[in-house]
Amino acid sequence: MSSTSYRSTRSSAADSHSFEEVVLKGLASDGGLFIPSKIPKLPANFVEEWKDLSFTDLAFNILRLYIEESEISNDELKSLIERSYSTFRHEDVTPIEKINDDLYLLELFHGPTYAFKDVALQFVGNLFEFFLQRKNANLPEEQKDKLTVVGATSGDTGSAAIYGLRGKKDVSVFILYPTGRISPIQEAQMTSVPDSNVHTLSVKGTFDDCQDIVKKIFSDVEFNKKFHIGAVNSINWARILAQQTYYFYSYFQLLKKQPDAKVRFVVPSGNFGDILAGYYAKEMGLPADKLIIATNENDILDRFLKTGEYAKSADVKATLSPAMDILISSNFERLLWYLVRNQVKDDLKAGEILSQWFEDLKTKGSFKVSDEIIASATKDFDSDRVEDAEIISTITETYQKYNKYVLDPHTAVGVKVSNDNIAKDSEKFTYISLSTAHPAKFADAVNKALSTIEGYSFDDDVLPQELKELSGKQLRIKLIDQADVEVVKSTIEELLK
Ligand SMILES: *Cc1c(COP(=O)(O)O)cnc(C)c1O
């Protein structure tokens, strides 16, 4: 039985929200993020009891600790989880792959869009549908709450949202992308989905134009009231929750191969959602020695751990690992709350401090924390940054040394950091490095690293049959020939009819 309620990271008053509210709202009204102020603890004998469970049974046990039975019954939760992971191609859902005695890759890309975001978004899509259907059950059609999810993508993340929401009742999804600026595979993945609740808008402009339009739509009160605009962005609590399962699952898989392994996780990080799930797992009691943040050249997190200053750079750098190209890591606020609360021992005071810090971030572009906070962060975390040239050399070396294993450029960021740690460790650790995308999704970087190697062929060695077949599919491309919010709004209105 759980007794979890949720609060906002910026609230300095008593604050309590249900799981349903947290999932459907996404962001708290004060601009903070929803968190469980108490992190549940694992049963003492969890290794014995859980180590042989399937991925879905394990997911059930973990999620149950965070969701009241009065909100979602055991049978309903089981069914939501089963449906969410039946779309994965691998029987283990998230298998581990041995690279060498010190390093395993946790492959998170066996879902429908070949990227780790599927693990969370397949579940979130089903949750949205579940909550809306329940709310709407006895209402006449015109009174039903229908959610319109709107988002922008630079190519690599939009498809996971689309595949999470396709075919769901009472939900429509609109994804904007910049015309001609995403790869043909990415465009085909998104626009070949035939479900009538899915709409992709190819906007003549840049990714920033698309994001601006989405922001304007979110702040349009009247439009919101009429169409109940929602988001599935990386701060949604349900995503963090769903991602906790694979930390446990990979730990148990590793124990079967190395029963006395001391484990460290390395996570290619952008918005800090993936690795934050590891923090919850560790706080619950998963015996992981450290969680290591691997950033690309957009390195706000690495700089923070080294200096104590959380400072936004002037510009985001376009790197070979685009899904990690961020200025600030939105989920990091959640970790900061726990670090501060554990120090001041007061939920309300923690909210007050966080609220001030994020005000400073907005107005001055940075804030600084005390040495004690950094000392407590580095008990659980370590970090390093990786440059584009190192991404390329890591893909090349891994292919040559480890039986032609092909890394995607995001995964390569983690592997580089893992290798550097292994080389300097004086004590023996086993690293589980998270593999966040299939290499076929990032052909340019992969080919840059491998195309001069004799015998290598992208089509034969990397591209899965299912993605090859995309090129023959019927695409539905809706062109918006002006990057203008009014044009997009009227298109949404028209398509919803
Ligand atoms: C989103 C993403 C990441 C970064 O994950 P965060 O949760 O934002 O830290 C890394 N790799 C890939 C391929 C991604 O799509």
TrEMBL record:
Catalyzes the gamma-elimination of phosphate from L-phosphohomoserine and the beta-addition of water to produce L-threonine. The lineage of its organism: Eukaryota, Fungi, Dikarya, Ascomycota, Saccharomycotina. InterPro entries: Ser/Thr_deHydtase_PyrdxlP-BS (IPR000634), Thr_synth_N (IPR029144), Thr_synth_N_sf (IPR037158), Thr_synthase-like (IPR004450), Threonine_Synthase (IPR051166), TrpB-like_PALP (IPR001926), TrpB-like_PALP_sf (IPR036052). Residues 94-343 form the Tryptophan synthase beta chain-like PALP domain. It comes from Wickerhamomyces mucosus. Its EC number is 4.2.3.1. It catalyses: O-phospho-L-homoserine + H2O = L-threonine + phosphate. Its cofactor is pyridoxal 5'-phosphate. GO terms for molecular function: pyridoxal phosphate binding; threonine synthase activity. Pathway: Amino-acid biosynthesis; L-threonine biosynthesis; L-threonine from L-aspartate: step 5/5. Belongs to the threonine synthase family. The modification N6-(pyridoxal phosphate)lysine is found at residue 117. Keywords: Amino-acid biosynthesis, Lyase, Pyridoxal phosphate, Threonine biosynthesis. This is Threonine synthase. GO terms for biological process: threonine biosynthetic process.
